[in-house]
Task: inverse folding
């Protein structure tokens, strides 16, 4: 057996980070009652913008900032259409994905990287020298840490702060929240922008760290996986992190098992089954665990006159 | 009155179109291409596109070149091909295995349009198939892999389980094993031709498991990037030269050289001599090229690899020459026996020594 569990678990975190970032953004958007199906489009915009900005400036920080800005930019298109012009959220979100993919492809045409971008790993002093756990958890790049901190922050803000309470109120029943005097559209606008920024960061993580190159269609469906994980995690941040790591982990694990001759504990498993495991395992585990329900106003348009 | 004028104008226009179209069609041959990936994937599709552009340049004003990129394999391909035929294409090239049935279906509806399907096996009166003997190039790669590996572990990123890919794995394994009896192949199937993130993950998994040579049958350059980051890993360009990753990690490549075939077939349409045929050419006919072997390879190994390439090109040596056994140990080719093209084109088993199952 050639699989090194420590390297495998470390690779799991890298493979999961883009999905985790996009999913935590979408979770906040959906908890505010907005269903944005444009995650894939915002991710790929982030991927191309991060790549272009990063390789023009040579700075990974600028790259990720540009990616977040591009994600926000595309999410604003969605926000104006759904919150101001009251278009159908499902259709607008699907349109946003198609638009984002086309625009990203156009932006990427003919771009020649000028400067190399290196996203360096940060070994956390002290913690990174713990045997086994150190290499798995504490020798990653800053974005991996950021993604985990973001999930923690979302968990704390949603659950234990006034701002989180207002956001949830807007998502559960926008008429009641409006009657109490909360600015429903403003809250939703901010939530949509947060979702856009996170999806953009997730996309840039693919084009600047995981692959790292720009190729058309590079996100290859990661945005849809993120959307699915939000639902299966029943809109709870701590389940989300489990779902994303489970999916990323199974993806990396099945590739490693294939490389190892397709054997699990000496039993040969057909490749077809191996390659479906990430999807099956994630759905089964999250469905078994799930007990939540969707925010009450999810996907419904709001206007003060109704 | 007005309506009648309109009708008359309409009839006139239809007449003009009916008379005018054949005249225009004769003046300009419309050549269409259907691609499975984007034209900047850095590999398979980009290379088809570049070769198509060479064809278009060769004919200049005599052809009108149109293409559609990123067409998904399956029902949507049928729509894209039909669209191209309705647009007046005289010949349509469909450049992925999965376009086979859609091409055959559309061809039945447009008997006057000529179709050329890459890497498939179904032909019709107006459908030709063409492919390259990539496995001849894979034999040279396998030789280099066997010589260059220090860990004796060679990784192989496989795409879709079709005979072309299985042939490639066999050809490279046979020639790696011949020069390095201890060599072991680790094969990962990703079930897609192009998915950079998955290709990168697969390459990293192989490298982490100790492979220091990674071969790929997928279309992007992501595995090269992973190898470059790892440092001491060798890779090979696939479909295109991928020279931007040389001299390390990319130490050689298989280059698909389609342009002469494209020029030949479009010329045949112009001359009215086009006939359905089945083309499967290799290094000798120039359809498969071996990219420059870089300086990272010692000179004596490079010379041997080039000798192998030349012996395949001249026809003196066939990469599938016995004695060879199937994976289960049963005999396939006797000593000195050469596999015939018909068997190779439908090959669905590994040769002896390769571990793992082929997905069906």
Result:
């Amino acid at each position: 057996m050639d699989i090194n569990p420590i390297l495998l678990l470390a690779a799991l975190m890298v493979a999961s980070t883009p999905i985790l970032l996009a999913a935590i953004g979408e979770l906040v958007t959906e908890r505010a009652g907005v269903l944005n199906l444009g995650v894939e489009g915002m991710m790929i915009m982030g991927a191309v913008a991060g790549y272009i900005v990063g390789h023009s400036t040579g700075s990974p920080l600028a790259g990720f900032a540009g990616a977040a800005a591009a994600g926000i930019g595309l999410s604003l298109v969605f926000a104006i259409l759904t919150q101001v012009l009251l278009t159908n959220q499902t259709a607008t979100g699907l349109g946003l994905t198609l638009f984002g993919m086309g625009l990203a492809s156009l932006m990427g045409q003919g771009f020649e990287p000028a400067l190399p971008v290196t996203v360096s790993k940060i070994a956390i002093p002290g913690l990174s020298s713990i045997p086994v756990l150190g290499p798995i958890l504490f020798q990653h790049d800053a974005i991996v840490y950021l993604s985990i901190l973001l999930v923690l922050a979302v968990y704390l803000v949603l659950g234990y702060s006034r701002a989180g309470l207002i956001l949830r109120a807007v998502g559960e029943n926008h008429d009641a929240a409006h009657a109490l005097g909360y600015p429903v559209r403003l809250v939703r606008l901010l939530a949509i922008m947060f979702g856009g920024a996170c999806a953009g960061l997730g996309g840039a993580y693919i084009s600047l760290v995981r692959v790292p190159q720009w190729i058309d269609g590079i996100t290859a469906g990661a945005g849809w996986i993120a959307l699915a994980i939000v639902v299966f995690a029943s809109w709870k941040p701590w389940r989300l992190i489990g779902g994303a790591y489970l999916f990323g982990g199974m993806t990396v694990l099945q590739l490693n098992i294939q490389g190892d001759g397709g054997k699990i504990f000496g039993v040969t498993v057909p490749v077809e089954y191996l390659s479906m495991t990430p999807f099956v395992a994630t759905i089964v585990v999250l469905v078994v665990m799930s007990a939540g329900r969707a925010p009450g106003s999810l996907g419904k348009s709001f206007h003060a006159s109704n | 009155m007005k309506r009648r004028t309109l009708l008359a104008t309409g009839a006139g226009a239809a007449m003009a179109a009916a008379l005018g179209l054949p005249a225009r069609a004769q003046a300009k041959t419309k050549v269409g291409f259907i691609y499975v990936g984007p034209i900047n994937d850095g590999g398979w599709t980009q290379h088809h596109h570049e070769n198509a552009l060479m064809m278009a340049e060769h004919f200049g004003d005599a052809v009108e070149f149109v293409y559609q990129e990123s067409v998904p394999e399956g029902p949507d391909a049928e729509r894209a091909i039909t669209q191209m035929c309705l647009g007046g294409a005289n010949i349509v090239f469909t450049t992925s295995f999965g376009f086979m049935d859609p091409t055959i279906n559309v061809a039945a509806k447009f008997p006057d349009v000529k179709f050329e399907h890459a890497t498939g096996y179904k032909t019709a009166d107006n459908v030709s198939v063409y492919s390259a003997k990539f496995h001849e190039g894979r034999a040279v790669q396998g030789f280099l892999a066997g010589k260059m590996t220090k860990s004796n572990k060679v990784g192989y990123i496989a795409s879709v389980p079709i005979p072309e890919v299985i042939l490639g794995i066999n050809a490279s394994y046979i020639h790696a094993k011949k020069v390095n009896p201890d060599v072991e192949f680790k094969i990962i199937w990703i079930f897609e031709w192009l998915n950079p993130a998955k290709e990168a993950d697969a390459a990293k998994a192989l490298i982490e498991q100790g492979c220091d040579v990674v071969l790929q049958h997928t279309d992007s350059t992501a595995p090269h990037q992973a190898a470059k980051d790892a440092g001491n890993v060798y890779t090979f360009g696939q479909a295109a030269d991928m020279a931007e990753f040389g001299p390390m990690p990319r130490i050689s490549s298989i280059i698909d050289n389609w342009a002469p075939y494209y020029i030949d077939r479009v010329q045949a349409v112009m001359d009215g001599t086009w006939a359905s045929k089945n083309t499967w050419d290799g290094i000798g006919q120039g359809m498969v090229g071996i990219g420059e072997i870089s300086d990272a390879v010692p000179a004596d190994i490079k010379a041997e690899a080039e000798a192998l390439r030349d012996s395949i090109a001249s026809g003196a040596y066939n990469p599938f020459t016995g004695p060879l056994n199937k994976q289960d140990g049963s005999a396939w080719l006797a000593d000195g026996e050469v596999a015939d093209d018909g068997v190779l084109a439908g090959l669905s088993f590994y040769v002896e020594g390769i571990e793992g199952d082929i997905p069906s």
Remarks:
- Residues 45 and 103 of chain A are 7 Å apart (CA to CA).
- The mean pLDDT of chain A is 90.
- The longest strand of chain A covers residues 121-123.
